[in-house]
Amino acid sequence: MGKVTFLNPEFFWLFLLIPMAVAWMYWKRNEQSATLKMSSTQGFKSSNSLIAKLKPILNLLRILALSSLIIAMARPRTVDVSNQTKTTRGIDIVMAIDVSGSMLAKDLRPNRMEALKDVAAYFVEERPNDRIGLVVYASESYTKTPVTSDKAVVLEAIKSIKYDQVLKDGTGIGMGLATAVNRLKDSKAKSKVIILLTDGVNNAGFIEPETAADIAKQYGIKVYTIGIGTNGMAESPYALSPTGQILFQMMKVEIDEQLLKNIARKTEGKYFRATSNSKLAEIYASINKLETTEIEELRFYDYDEKYRPFVWLAGLLLLLEIGLRNTVYRSFI
Hints:
Largest sheet: 6 strands, mixed
Number of helices: 10
Strand content: 25-35%
Protein backbone atom coordinates (compact mmCIF):
# COMPACT_ATOMS: atom_id res chain seq x y z
CA MET A 1 0.00 0.00 0.00
CA GLY A 2 1.28 3.47 -0.85
CA LYS A 3 1.74 6.30 1.61
CA VAL A 4 -1.50 7.15 3.41
CA THR A 5 -2.54 10.79 3.43
CA PHE A 6 -5.59 12.52 4.96
CA LEU A 7 -7.82 14.93 3.04
CA ASN A 8 -9.32 16.48 6.20
CA PRO A 9 -6.72 16.05 8.97
CA GLU A 10 -8.36 18.80 11.03
CA PHE A 11 -10.93 16.23 12.22
CA PHE A 12 -8.19 14.61 14.32
CA TRP A 13 -8.74 17.46 16.80
CA LEU A 14 -11.92 15.60 17.79
CA PHE A 15 -9.72 13.03 19.53
CA LEU A 16 -9.31 15.63 22.27
CA LEU A 17 -12.97 14.94 23.17
CA ILE A 18 -12.29 11.23 23.80
CA PRO A 19 -10.76 11.76 27.28
CA MET A 20 -13.72 13.98 28.16
CA ALA A 21 -16.13 11.28 27.00
CA VAL A 22 -14.30 8.67 29.09
CA ALA A 23 -14.41 10.92 32.14
CA TRP A 24 -18.14 11.55 31.61
CA MET A 25 -18.91 7.84 31.33
CA TYR A 26 -16.93 7.15 34.49
CA TRP A 27 -18.75 9.94 36.32
CA LYS A 28 -22.16 8.64 35.22
CA ARG A 29 -21.34 4.95 35.58
CA ASN A 30 -23.67 4.44 38.58
CA GLU A 31 -26.64 6.04 36.80
CA GLN A 32 -26.47 3.52 33.97
CA SER A 33 -27.74 0.68 36.17
CA ALA A 34 -31.01 0.28 38.07
CA THR A 35 -30.67 0.88 41.82
CA LEU A 36 -32.60 -0.40 44.80
CA LYS A 37 -32.32 1.09 48.28
CA MET A 38 -32.49 -1.30 51.22
CA SER A 39 -31.37 -1.23 54.80
CA SER A 40 -29.14 -4.30 54.56
CA THR A 41 -27.63 -6.56 51.87
CA GLN A 42 -26.63 -9.34 54.21
CA GLY A 43 -29.32 -11.59 52.79
CA PHE A 44 -27.98 -11.26 49.23
CA LYS A 45 -25.13 -13.30 47.93
CA SER A 46 -22.57 -11.13 46.13
CA SER A 47 -22.19 -11.88 42.42
CA ASN A 48 -18.78 -11.99 40.80
CA SER A 49 -19.91 -13.39 37.44
CA LEU A 50 -17.88 -12.82 34.27
CA ILE A 51 -20.80 -10.97 32.64
CA ALA A 52 -20.82 -8.39 35.41
CA LYS A 53 -17.08 -7.84 35.06
CA LEU A 54 -17.37 -7.35 31.29
CA LYS A 55 -20.08 -4.69 31.41
CA PRO A 56 -17.57 -1.79 31.00
CA ILE A 57 -16.86 -3.20 27.54
CA LEU A 58 -20.04 -1.41 26.37
CA ASN A 59 -18.38 1.95 26.92
CA LEU A 60 -15.19 0.72 25.29
CA LEU A 61 -17.12 -0.30 22.17
CA ARG A 62 -18.69 3.16 21.99
CA ILE A 63 -15.30 4.89 22.34
CA LEU A 64 -13.78 2.68 19.61
CA ALA A 65 -16.75 3.42 17.35
CA LEU A 66 -16.30 7.17 17.83
CA SER A 67 -12.57 6.86 17.11
CA SER A 68 -13.27 4.99 13.87
CA LEU A 69 -15.75 7.67 12.81
CA ILE A 70 -13.19 10.41 13.46
CA ILE A 71 -10.60 8.61 11.33
CA ALA A 72 -13.19 8.11 8.58
CA MET A 73 -14.07 11.84 8.60
CA ALA A 74 -10.36 12.65 8.20
CA ARG A 75 -10.58 10.82 4.83
CA PRO A 76 -7.56 8.51 4.76
CA ARG A 77 -6.44 7.62 1.24
CA THR A 78 -3.46 6.57 -0.81
CA VAL A 79 -2.38 8.30 -4.00
CA ASP A 80 -0.53 7.06 -7.04
CA VAL A 81 1.15 9.94 -8.92
CA SER A 82 2.33 9.60 -12.50
CA ASN A 83 4.12 12.34 -14.46
CA GLN A 84 4.32 13.05 -18.14
CA THR A 85 6.61 15.80 -19.41
CA LYS A 86 6.76 17.49 -22.76
CA THR A 87 9.29 20.07 -23.87
CA THR A 88 7.39 23.02 -25.26
CA ARG A 89 10.28 25.40 -25.98
CA GLY A 90 13.58 23.92 -27.13
CA ILE A 91 16.82 25.89 -27.35
CA ASP A 92 19.56 25.37 -29.93
CA ILE A 93 22.99 26.24 -28.54
CA VAL A 94 26.36 26.44 -30.28
CA MET A 95 29.55 26.76 -28.26
CA ALA A 96 32.29 28.55 -30.21
CA ILE A 97 35.60 27.79 -28.51
CA ASP A 98 38.98 29.41 -29.07
CA VAL A 99 41.64 26.68 -29.56
CA SER A 100 44.61 28.95 -30.27
CA GLY A 101 47.92 28.29 -28.57
CA SER A 102 47.25 30.88 -25.87
CA MET A 103 44.51 28.59 -24.49
CA LEU A 104 47.35 26.53 -23.04
CA ALA A 105 48.17 29.33 -20.57
CA LYS A 106 48.34 28.07 -17.01
CA ASP A 107 46.50 30.83 -15.16
CA LEU A 108 43.61 28.35 -14.89
CA ARG A 109 44.36 24.82 -13.76
CA PRO A 110 45.77 22.78 -15.36
CA ASN A 111 45.38 25.24 -18.26
CA ARG A 112 42.61 27.30 -19.83
CA MET A 113 41.64 24.68 -22.40
CA GLU A 114 41.34 21.77 -19.96
CA ALA A 115 39.43 23.92 -17.44
CA LEU A 116 37.02 24.93 -20.16
CA LYS A 117 36.47 21.34 -21.30
CA ASP A 118 35.44 20.26 -17.80
CA VAL A 119 32.98 23.12 -17.36
CA ALA A 120 31.57 22.83 -20.89
CA ALA A 121 30.95 19.08 -20.45
CA TYR A 122 29.02 19.72 -17.24
CA PHE A 123 27.00 22.43 -18.99
CA VAL A 124 26.00 19.98 -21.74
CA GLU A 125 24.89 17.40 -19.18
CA GLU A 126 22.69 20.05 -17.55
CA ARG A 127 20.82 20.71 -20.83
CA PRO A 128 19.03 17.39 -21.51
CA ASN A 129 16.16 19.01 -23.45
CA ASP A 130 18.20 21.17 -25.83
CA ARG A 131 20.25 20.64 -28.96
CA ILE A 132 23.91 21.62 -28.78
CA GLY A 133 26.65 22.07 -31.38
CA LEU A 134 30.37 22.79 -31.19
CA VAL A 135 32.55 25.14 -33.27
CA VAL A 136 36.31 25.53 -32.75
CA TYR A 137 38.41 28.35 -34.10
CA ALA A 138 41.87 29.86 -34.14
CA SER A 139 42.76 31.96 -37.19
CA GLU A 140 40.20 29.83 -39.04
CA SER A 141 37.19 27.86 -37.82
CA TYR A 142 35.20 24.73 -38.47
CA THR A 143 32.22 22.85 -37.08
CA LYS A 144 33.39 20.05 -34.82
CA THR A 145 29.85 18.88 -34.04
CA PRO A 146 26.64 20.10 -35.74
CA VAL A 147 23.67 20.98 -33.58
CA THR A 148 22.38 17.70 -32.21
CA SER A 149 20.33 16.27 -29.35
CA ASP A 150 22.82 13.39 -28.97
CA LYS A 151 24.67 14.52 -25.86
CA ALA A 152 27.13 11.61 -26.04
CA VAL A 153 28.42 12.90 -29.38
CA VAL A 154 28.81 16.44 -28.02
CA LEU A 155 30.58 15.27 -24.87
CA GLU A 156 32.98 13.15 -26.90
CA ALA A 157 33.70 16.15 -29.15
CA ILE A 158 34.45 18.35 -26.14
CA LYS A 159 36.72 15.68 -24.68
CA SER A 160 38.72 15.53 -27.93
CA ILE A 161 39.43 19.29 -28.10
CA LYS A 162 43.15 19.96 -28.03
CA TYR A 163 45.82 22.24 -29.40
CA ASP A 164 47.11 20.27 -32.39
CA GLN A 165 48.01 23.03 -34.90
CA VAL A 166 45.39 21.72 -37.37
CA LEU A 167 44.24 25.33 -37.55
CA LYS A 168 46.73 28.09 -38.16
CA ASP A 169 47.46 29.82 -34.89
CA GLY A 170 45.83 33.15 -34.21
CA THR A 171 42.53 34.42 -32.87
CA GLY A 172 39.80 34.89 -35.46
CA ILE A 173 36.84 35.84 -33.29
CA GLY A 174 34.81 36.88 -36.33
CA MET A 175 35.52 33.54 -38.03
CA GLY A 176 34.37 31.53 -35.03
CA LEU A 177 31.24 33.62 -34.54
CA ALA A 178 30.33 33.50 -38.24
CA THR A 179 30.64 29.70 -38.36
CA ALA A 180 28.47 29.39 -35.26
CA VAL A 181 25.85 31.69 -36.81
CA ASN A 182 25.88 29.55 -39.95
CA ARG A 183 25.07 26.51 -37.79
CA LEU A 184 22.00 28.23 -36.30
CA LYS A 185 20.61 30.49 -39.02
CA ASP A 186 18.23 27.82 -40.38
CA SER A 187 17.24 26.50 -36.94
CA LYS A 188 13.51 26.25 -36.21
CA ALA A 189 14.06 26.40 -32.46
CA LYS A 190 12.22 29.03 -30.45
CA SER A 191 15.51 30.30 -29.04
CA LYS A 192 19.00 30.30 -30.59
CA VAL A 193 22.10 30.93 -28.51
CA ILE A 194 25.85 31.13 -29.12
CA ILE A 195 28.38 30.92 -26.30
CA LEU A 196 31.56 32.52 -27.67
CA LEU A 197 34.73 32.01 -25.65
CA THR A 198 38.12 33.58 -26.32
CA ASP A 199 41.26 34.54 -24.42
CA GLY A 200 42.73 37.09 -26.81
CA VAL A 201 42.34 39.87 -29.30
CA ASN A 202 40.94 39.44 -32.80
CA ASN A 203 44.03 39.27 -35.02
CA ALA A 204 43.19 36.82 -37.79
CA GLY A 205 40.49 35.80 -40.25
CA PHE A 206 38.73 37.70 -43.01
CA ILE A 207 35.39 38.26 -41.22
CA GLU A 208 35.14 41.15 -38.80
CA PRO A 209 33.57 40.24 -35.41
CA GLU A 210 31.18 43.20 -35.62
CA THR A 211 29.97 42.00 -39.01
CA ALA A 212 29.38 38.50 -37.65
CA ALA A 213 27.50 40.03 -34.70
CA ASP A 214 25.26 41.96 -37.13
CA ILE A 215 24.44 38.71 -38.94
CA ALA A 216 23.67 36.99 -35.63
CA LYS A 217 21.29 39.81 -34.71
CA GLN A 218 19.59 39.54 -38.10
CA TYR A 219 18.81 35.87 -37.47
CA GLY A 220 17.65 36.49 -33.89
CA ILE A 221 20.63 34.72 -32.35
CA LYS A 222 21.71 35.75 -28.85
CA VAL A 223 25.46 35.71 -28.16
CA TYR A 224 26.97 35.26 -24.69
CA THR A 225 30.66 36.20 -24.77
CA ILE A 226 33.27 34.97 -22.29
CA GLY A 227 36.77 36.36 -21.91
CA ILE A 228 39.00 33.80 -20.22
CA GLY A 229 42.21 34.74 -18.42
CA THR A 230 43.44 36.40 -15.26
CA ASN A 231 43.99 40.11 -14.86
CA GLY A 232 47.68 40.91 -15.31
CA MET A 233 50.32 38.30 -16.13
CA ALA A 234 49.98 34.60 -16.91
CA GLU A 235 52.34 31.75 -17.72
CA SER A 236 51.67 31.46 -21.45
CA PRO A 237 53.20 29.55 -24.41
CA TYR A 238 55.50 31.63 -26.62
CA ALA A 239 57.57 29.21 -28.73
CA LEU A 240 58.45 25.61 -29.53
CA SER A 241 61.78 24.09 -28.58
CA PRO A 242 63.87 22.21 -31.20
CA THR A 243 62.32 19.00 -29.84
CA GLY A 244 58.79 20.30 -30.37
CA GLN A 245 58.12 21.01 -26.71
CA ILE A 246 56.01 24.07 -25.90
CA LEU A 247 57.91 26.72 -23.97
CA PHE A 248 56.22 29.01 -21.43
CA GLN A 249 57.00 32.41 -19.97
CA MET A 250 55.11 35.06 -18.01
CA MET A 251 53.20 37.28 -20.44
CA LYS A 252 50.57 39.97 -20.15
CA VAL A 253 46.99 38.79 -20.60
CA GLU A 254 45.31 40.76 -23.38
CA ILE A 255 41.58 40.38 -24.02
CA ASP A 256 39.55 42.73 -26.18
CA GLU A 257 36.80 43.12 -23.59
CA GLN A 258 35.22 46.07 -25.35
CA LEU A 259 34.72 44.01 -28.50
CA LEU A 260 33.18 41.14 -26.56
CA LYS A 261 30.86 43.55 -24.72
CA ASN A 262 29.76 45.08 -28.01
CA ILE A 263 28.97 41.69 -29.53
CA ALA A 264 26.92 40.69 -26.47
CA ARG A 265 25.07 44.01 -26.30
CA LYS A 266 24.27 44.04 -30.00
CA THR A 267 22.71 40.54 -29.86
CA GLU A 268 20.99 41.07 -26.47
CA GLY A 269 23.39 38.67 -24.79
CA LYS A 270 25.79 39.25 -21.92
CA TYR A 271 29.55 39.48 -21.42
CA PHE A 272 31.43 37.56 -18.71
CA ARG A 273 35.07 37.49 -17.58
CA ALA A 274 36.48 34.20 -16.29
CA THR A 275 39.60 34.80 -14.22
CA SER A 276 39.67 31.42 -12.44
CA ASN A 277 38.31 27.88 -12.63
CA SER A 278 35.55 28.66 -10.14
CA LYS A 279 34.60 31.88 -11.95
CA LEU A 280 34.37 29.99 -15.25
CA ALA A 281 32.06 27.42 -13.64
CA GLU A 282 29.91 30.23 -12.20
CA ILE A 283 29.60 31.83 -15.64
CA TYR A 284 28.32 28.66 -17.29
CA ALA A 285 25.94 28.15 -14.36
CA SER A 286 24.63 31.70 -14.88
CA ILE A 287 24.05 31.09 -18.59
CA ASN A 288 22.34 27.82 -17.72
CA LYS A 289 19.88 29.76 -15.53
CA LEU A 290 19.40 32.60 -18.01
CA GLU A 291 18.50 30.25 -20.87
CA THR A 292 15.76 28.02 -19.48
CA THR A 293 13.76 25.55 -21.50
CA GLU A 294 10.01 25.62 -20.89
CA ILE A 295 8.69 22.17 -20.00
CA GLU A 296 5.05 21.24 -19.71
CA GLU A 297 4.45 18.71 -16.97
CA LEU A 298 1.23 16.74 -16.71
CA ARG A 299 0.69 15.07 -13.37
CA PHE A 300 -2.01 12.42 -12.86
CA TYR A 301 -3.35 11.52 -9.42
CA ASP A 302 -5.12 8.22 -8.74
CA TYR A 303 -6.70 8.29 -5.28
CA ASP A 304 -7.75 5.16 -3.40
CA GLU A 305 -10.12 6.12 -0.57
CA LYS A 306 -9.57 4.22 2.68
CA TYR A 307 -12.32 5.68 4.90
CA ARG A 308 -14.99 3.07 4.13
CA PRO A 309 -13.53 0.28 6.34
CA PHE A 310 -13.52 2.69 9.30
CA VAL A 311 -17.19 3.56 8.70
CA TRP A 312 -18.09 -0.13 8.58
CA LEU A 313 -16.07 -0.80 11.73
CA ALA A 314 -17.78 2.06 13.59
CA GLY A 315 -21.19 0.79 12.52
CA LEU A 316 -20.44 -2.77 13.62
CA LEU A 317 -19.11 -1.61 16.99
CA LEU A 318 -22.22 0.52 17.61
CA LEU A 319 -24.54 -2.33 16.61
CA LEU A 320 -22.63 -4.66 18.91
CA GLU A 321 -22.92 -2.21 21.80
CA ILE A 322 -26.63 -1.62 21.22
CA GLY A 323 -27.24 -5.35 20.89
CA LEU A 324 -25.46 -6.20 24.14
CA ARG A 325 -27.08 -3.31 26.00
CA ASN A 326 -30.57 -4.46 24.94
CA THR A 327 -30.04 -8.19 25.43
CA VAL A 328 -27.38 -9.47 27.82
CA TYR A 329 -27.25 -6.28 29.93
CA ARG A 330 -30.87 -5.15 29.51
CA SER A 331 -32.04 -6.06 33.00
CA PHE A 332 -28.61 -6.38 34.51
CA ILE A 333 -28.26 -4.87 38.00
